[in-house]
Write the structure tokens for this entry.
Amino acid sequence: MSDFNQPLGGNELARFSGPNTFMRLPSATDLTGLDVAVLGVPMDIGTSWRSGTRFGPKQIRSESAMIRPYNMATGAAPFDSLQVADIGDLAINTFSLADSLRIIQDSYASILSHDLIPVAMGGDHSITLPILRAIAAKHGPVALIHVDAHADVNDEMFGERETHGTVFRRAYEDGCLIADKVYQVGIRGTGYAATDFAEARGWGFQQFPAHELWHRSLSPLGAEIRRDIGDRPVYVTYDIDSLDPSVAPGTGTPEIGGLMTPQALELIHELRGLNIVGCDLVEVSPPYDPSGNTGLTAANLLYELLCVLPGVAYQ
């Protein structure tokens, strides 16, 4: 009998029943002994266009019931060597963005007092700023792999300095990031001016626009990023709108011409061996996802991220 938590299998209890935890893993309130804590941040008050990401964690958990523990493509068996549990949702203040960001940062400070890797389900992308602040308080400045249609380096949005579109400017200003080890993959769409991304490149951010990645395998890019980061601590933040809306329509700010699902998998597979200290997947908006396909894709990408965390066993 394994000493590690295992997802509840479909032959033990039908997948349409059982606990609504990620992959039907055990839930936990005591973080002692965990290697990985999966949690939800059900918030959409930081978004500027479509709402609905407050329902993202519940939908991702629901769609994750289909995922089995062994990765056929890579041989990863994360639940054979890592103790993983779903620790539930953070109790954000749905009437206050500022207070919610404080709650997230304080909650992460408590979570990170344990020697574990937090894996978050959003929620809009504003959740990543307080997470990075807490991560940097523990690990120092980190490398960042940021997969997204948008660079999220605005200075203000409607006069607000902390929203889903300002995250990485604030994180840079706060010293949370190793600026020349920030990789923004999949950015695209229209802008307000040709200079929209130039300032962040001046900070050292490395940007890989989607149009330069069309019809290309992302395995070489992932391998290049892995070599460039080396053994530095790294945070991975995955906005589901990095994918083309033809495959992931359920998101708040869709942009055409995005990455395709196999490219997303190729990129993640190449991150094996990095010192990943945390990750998140954000911006799943179920009201715009009538088939559930966006939630299904998000759940699988989170599983793939679990499969490249430090300490994962391979068969």
In short: The domain at 32-314 is CATH 3.40.800.10 (Arginase; Chain A). The beta strands are 36-41, 76-77, 84-89, 117-122, 142-147, 177-185, 206-208, 233-239, 275-282, 313-314. DSSP finds eight helices and ten strands in the chain.
